[in-house]
Amino acid sequence: KQEATKMKLLFSTIIISSFLNCALADSFNFEHIGQSPRGSDVPTSRNVGYSITYTNKWTAQNHPFRYPSSDPHYSSFLWASHSSDYVMWENGGTATRGIENVAEIGSIGALRGEVQAEQNMGNVLDDVVGSMIGTAFDGATSISNEDLCVDASHPYVSGLGMLAPSPDWFSGAYNVPLRDETTMTWYRRVKVNVYAWDAGTEDGDNYQFNNPATTGGVISAFMAGDTEDAVFVSRNGDTLRVLPVAELLFELEESSEKCATNTEDPTDTFLITARRSGNLRRRDCEWARGRRRRCRMEIKNEDGEGSGRPVSEQCPVACAGL
């Protein structure tokens, strides 16, 4: 009876552990640490920059099963600031060629091409490269080569780097918000735990390269199951768990020369179609300030034809956050 009770408790622990890890994957697989996020009084109407530091926690002590005996390392990282219209990668999604290349061979070239295409469409504002980690000892860091610029229309950050040796595994985060939606200000400091992910493009459950390709695979987080004999899984008493592989830190650089822009809208007027009369009306950015519907209206040309440009594009300060 005592043994049966122990087995029941262990089984319950495993279920709880699996549930918590599933919840973690569904919440973008990042967790705020301590007092993060820490606020500021810098409004989102100001374009600012963030420094990015990735600090390794992937070690034989934290992730003991088959931890590589030689050459644990990370590739370079690529980070991008973007709007909600862009998804670099996500739990349950299919890896693009760019994500596949990062996860399998540590090359960011194709992903950077995808990001730049999204920049041309206005969905991405900026991208930066984080240095590779040649030897992944506890506390080793990858630091962004320059500040990552964000603005009111592009307040989210996504990025990743290869974790190696491995089939197609990586670490990073996606859709990390850097603004406080309540106060419409930039966070001063965001520090989160991040985890290991499988890109779903190669088979393999060991720290090895050159595995058979996977058909129809999806991106997924590593989660604790019913055994500790699995990569990234460790035991804490009767609990099976997957610990973070790194801490990711974003620090506000409000005086960043790279990201500084004018904080005033142009004074030029523009034409819109009046909602009630249907006639052309000449307006300015003060007319649009703080008005969501007005900011979303289309600017017209002199013939009354649509320009394809919303008022928010003409008036980024007046329409910030709308």
The percent range for helix content is: 10-25%
Structural class: alpha+beta
| Major pleated sheet | 7 strands, antiparallel
Number of beta strands: 21
Low-confidence stretches: 1-28
Which H/E pattern describes the elements?
Answer: HEEEEHHEEEEEEEEEEEEEEEHHEEH
Content of β-strand: 25-35%
- Mean pLDDT equals 89
Radius of gyration: 23 Å
**N-C termini distance:** 62 Å
Oligomer state equals single chain
Number of helices: 6
Q: Indicate the overall shape.
A: elongated
Describe this structure in words.
By secondary structure, this protein is α+β, with helices and mostly antiparallel strands. Helices cover 18% and strands 30% of the residues. The radius of gyration is 23 Å and the shape is elongated. 38% of the residues are buried.
Layout of strands and helices, then pairs:
Blueprint: H1 2-26, E1 30-32, E2 48-56, E3 73-74, E4 77-82, H2 97-105, H3 109-120, E5 124-130, E6 141-143, E7 148-150, E8 156-164, E9 169-177, E10 179-180, E11 185-186, E12 189-194, E13 196-198, E14 220-221, E15 233-236, E16 239-242, E17 246-253, E18 270-273, E19 280-283, H4 285-288, H5 292-295, E20 298-300, E21 306-310, H6 311-314
Antiparallel strand pairs: 1-12, 2-6, 2-7, 2-17, 3-8, 4-5, 4-8, 8-9, 9-13, 10-11, 12-17, 13-14, 15-16, 18-19, 20-21
Helix pairs in contact: 2-3
